[in-house]
Amino acid sequence: MLAPSRSKVLEKAVSGTAVTLPSFLVPAFQTPPRRQFSKTPSASSKLGRTPISIPPGVELTIGEPRTKKDPTTYLRIPKRTVTISGPLGKLDLEIPPFLTIQHDQAAGKAVLSIENQDLKQQKEMWGTTWAYLNRHIMGVSEGHNAILRLVGVGYRATVEDRPKKAQYPGQKFVCLKLGFTHMVEEPVPYGMKASTPQPTRILLEGINREQVMTFAAQIRKWRRPEPYKGKGIFVNDETIKLKQKKIK
Question: What end-to-end distance do the CA atoms of the chain give, in Å?
Fold first, then answer.
């Protein structure tokens, strides 16, 4: 005789009638234990908890909280501005209200902390703010640079003056010969320096790394590296894997 169906067994179990199940059906009616995907406790940010060393000549000034409208959520969020000044210039950095900076001037270090380490948003901004602050400190003390390599027949670069096109006094222009019918001219942003140690090399210098790399990408877009001949404008240690030519 066949064993009773599962639905009938469940109905009898709910009604309170004692039912004896065959041994091979017992595992099917047992509730499996809840699976734990991770037993590792939440840890603090490795970058955020690392102290930032402040070299001599660099000063941090933490401003008072002020309300500012967020461009994404349109909410008014109180934020503070940290001013980093050094031998090469001055930069400003906005930090969220839940983040605190403990500046030890005697030891020359700064430690970042957040209010709640269990919130994902605060942990993300903890490491991000640490990276931005560290780059700003390096920028005002040592500076950031980017080297562009021009690879291609006839590719050349020079830095020249264009008084009629200058947006501020003394502005330079990076002039590129990239195989077009005309010369490409890119204005150097304010606060940056551009030079050509070689005809196929461009050196960009500045205190704001974001500004330096943005201008490097703006120059690179004119001749992006292509994978068949390996020609183009390469930024820093950028490389490209060559492909075989398409044979029809």
Answer: 71
With contact defined as beta carbons under 8 Å apart, do 99 and 114 qualify?
A: yes
Residue 103 host element (H or E): strand 99-104
For 174, the enclosing helix (H) or strand (E) is strand 172-177
DSSP string computed for 113-168? EES-TT-HHHHHHHHHHHHHHHHHHHHHHT-EEEEEEEESTT-EEEEEE-TTT-SS
Q: What is the pTM of this model?
A: 0.75
Q: In sequence order, what are the residues at sequence separation of 6 or more whose Cβ sits closer than 8 angstroms to the Cβ of residue 101?
A: 60, 62, 82, 95, 110, 111, 112, 133
Q: Quick one: CA torsion of 52, 54, 59, 64, rounded to 10 degrees?
A: 10
Q: Give 134-187 pLDDT, tens digit per residue.
A: 999 999 999 999 999 999 999 999 999 998 899 999 999 999 999 999 999 999
Q: Does residue 3 carry a pLDDT above 70? A: no
- The three state secondary structure string of 191-240 is CCEEEEEECCEEEEEECCHHHHHHHHHHHHCCCCCCCCCCCEEEECCCCC
CA proximity to 148, closest of 170, 172, 178: 178
Q: For residue 85, give both structure tokens.
A: 């000044």
DSSP state of 32: P
What backbone phi and psi angles, to 5 degrees, belong to 38? -150, 130
Alpha helix (H) residue ranges in 16-84:
26-29
